[in-house]
Amino acid sequence: MTYNKTHQTVSHIILMLVTLAMIVPLLLLFISSVTDEKILVANGYSFFPEKLSFGAYEYISANSSTIFKAYGITIVATAIGTVVGLLITGMMGFALSIKGLPGKSVISFFVFFTMLFNGGLVPSYIMWTSLGIVNSIWAYVIPFLLTNAFSIILIRSYFASNIPNELYDSAKIDGAGYFRIFMVIGLPLGKPILVTIGLFACLNYWNDWQNGLYFISDPDMLSIQALLNKMNQNMQAVITYTSTSSSAAASLPHVSIRMGIAFVAILPILVMYPFLQKYFASGIMGGAVKG
Amino acid sequence: MNKLIVFKKLKPFLPLYLMMIPCVTYLIINNYIPMVGIISAFKSFKATEGLLGSPWVGLKNFEFLFRTSDIGVIIRNTLLYNVAFILVNNFVGIILAILITGVKNDRLKKVYQSSVLLPFTMSMVVISYVVFAFLSQQNGMLNNSILQNNPVEWYSDATWWPLILTLVQCWKYVGYGALIYIAGISVIDRSLYEAGAIDGAGTWKQMTHITLPALVPSIITLFLLSIGRIFYSDFGLFYLIPQNSGMLFDVTATIDTYVYSALMSPGGIGRSAAAGLVQAIVGFVLVLLVNAIVRKFSSKDAIF
After folding, report:
1. Which of A108, A168, A181, B220 fits a 20 to 30 Å CA distance from B296?
2. What is the residue-averaged pLDDT of chain B?
3. A contact test, residue of B11, B18, B20, B46 with most A CBs within 10 A
């Protein structure tokens, strides 16, 4: 569109206000975590606290073992889940992209139908609990390996339209089987789509609190988001779940500690965001997370 | 003889079938077994006897479900919130997309675009902490600043929650919609605008006569996709953001919070499964219906 100066100015003003509205709430989270507890209790959460204190972060680092453990569980689940999930969806999408594969349409429908109909929470819950993933790292990893069959379809069309058949043919003449072709040609050429889908999977694992809610009762097995959720249900739980001794519990800065742990949970996303945002943007624009 | 031919034909593809096994196995376990598991809606489930061993009870779970006094409220909330979210998100998303694509300064354009997407990357638990920092009865930012003289008991007063939930979900998801519309605008032929400008069309005319008509297919597709999900709700939004407060039940209970709380209450698993099944069937029918309609409008946007 053609815009004159006034239009530009007005757009900038509106968009800067929107940008503030997107960022300021997260700023309140951070400021609350470094507000002195007494001031916090007396004056409430504020953007301009009278006194700052790093008590919450001192507590977090002094009692880091529980929070580190929760962090570790999140990192391990995210790493395993993303790699395994990407590998199984990548292989599936690649196989379905090969021209002339017998049974292709039946298998494609088998994949596609999972997007139309699902059994809902109860059957999944009964099945996963009876398969024994409760209170283990697998409770976080397995239910999220493939949250949307649409990624298979995306990978399939990416391979089908970006890798010329001649490349396969010449690889076959060289004696390479399909598995080698996938490793040597498929993975490198499919990188753009695989990275995008992988980053969405990472985000999905990092932010997952539901599997913790459904399948974890052991406080030692809480992921960082599940820990935050437990603390949400009970203010005092900050201490129960993180402190090794309960003696000085009453004087501890509960309120700012909660905010501190929440901030620590989003810190990796904030730090990586400048690098990640273009992948998220292109993924959404390309329909990577459709439906 | 015949078998040998089939085998010879399939043999080169064998590695491909092997590569599909992990994913197919996962889909069977994660998706197809639970589809069979919907029989739990017709059983009185006992963990000790397993799903197959538990006794059949016919439609009793559904009778329980529809006798729940709040079932009307729950369905109403699910539908009305979805309608509100569809309207607000698309409206705000289109405006943001038009504003952002019109920005000439490339660096600021990037800043705006990435900042509207930032909340999308935050987990609902963290967002519930942020909302709590604003609304907490004793420590909340609002009750301690602009509402100091007449504080609101946010977590027990239902008045403002329809607005709060709409705002929170718009904040989290509007960037997603805006990006889809930005993608839609970016493929519009530049020469259309130049031709429009020569013919004397101002910014407003260009928007209503070029940009919006070009976005219609994306608008219809997004709209219909959300209609297909109108019986579903964002569990995290309705469960975590109101801190699961019972006093807000009338304006925060949806089918998904019902499915969860019934599952967790003693003897409620049957009702929960029944509600989930109703949701899945309505969802299935709506998706088929919606897709048939999309195909009529613009076949390339149809999902299948």
Report:
1. A108
2. 89
3. B20
H or E, element range at B148: none
Q: B23, A259: Cβ pair inside 8 Å?
A: no
| pLDDT, tens digit, 9 for 90 and up, residues B45-63 | 888 888 888 889 889 899 9
Helix, coil or strand: residue A52:
strand
pLDDT digits (tens, 9 = 90+) for A137-195: 999 999 999 988 889 999 999 998 888 878 888 887 777 788 888 988 889 999 999 99
pLDDT, position A169: 80
- ipTM value for the complex: 0.90
* CA distance to A70, B170, B258, per residue, from B237 (Å): 23, 11, 13
Q: Whole-model pTM?
A: 0.90
pLDDT tens digit sequence for B232-247: 999 999 999 998 888 8
- What residue ranges do the domains of chain B occupy? 75-251
Chain A residues touching B10 at Cβ < 8 A: 102
**What distances in angstroms separate CA A5 from CA A11, A191, B193, B197, one per listed residue?**
10, 42, 17, 16
In a domain, A263, yes or no: yes
Q: Residue holding tokens 């995306």?
A: A154
What CATH class has B75-251?
Answer: mainly alpha
User: B247 or A202: whose pLDDT is higher?
Assistant: A202
A134-145 pLDDT, tens digit each: 999 999 999 999
Which residue has 């695989």 as its token pair? A194
Give CA–CA dist B302/B220, Å, rounded: 10
Q: Do the Cβ atoms of A19 and B29 come within 8 Å?
A: no
DSSP state of B253: -
Specify the number of domains making up chain A.
1
Could you give the 3-state DSSP secondary structure of residue B134?
helix
Q: Does some domain include residue A224?
A: yes
Three-state SS for B56? strand
Would residue A27 count as lying in a domain?
no
The structure tokens listed for B166 are 């709409």
Average pLDDT value for chain A: 86
The enclosing domain of A185 has a CATH number of 1.10.3720.10
CA B41 – CA B63 distance, rounded (Å): 11
Domain extent, residue A95, equals: 64-285
Side chain identity, residue B62: F
- Residue A33: inside a domain: no
